[in-house]
Design goal:
Blueprint lengths: L8 E7 L6 H9 L6 E7 L6 H7 L6 E4 L5 H11 L6 E3 L1
Parallel strand pairs: 1-2, 1-4, 2-3
């Protein structure tokens, strides 16, 4: 197993005005000891401090967009569409 390449795991977080929970969520993903993680955040155009918290942690975020969406499932689908093709797992 030492010669096997670890599969890419994509973690998608969808947010809208989540200033209370986004920082712990980002920290949780960043603290994982699995190294081959792609982290995508889809924000529904938050008007609280969510965006500034995300931008302050951009060093551990692979992809980030903020735009109006049609709800949580639309946001999830945006995240899936941004996932790298070689990603084997999607986690919300």
């Amino acid at each position: 197993m030492a010669n096997e390449i670890s599969p890419l795991v994509t973690v998608v977080t969808v947010t809208l005005n989540c200033e209370e929970s986004i920082s712990p969520t980002i920290e949780n993903v960043a603290s994982q000891d699995y190294e081959n993680i792609e982290y995508i955040i889809i924000d529904g155009k938050s008007v609280d401090k969510t965006l500034s918290i995300i931008r302050a942690n951009d060093n551990c975020i692979s992809k980030f967009i903020t735009e109006k969406d049609e709800g949580i499932y639309d946001a999830m689908n945006k995240g899936i569409s941004l996932a790298s093709p070689q990603s084997r797992f999607i986690h919300f």
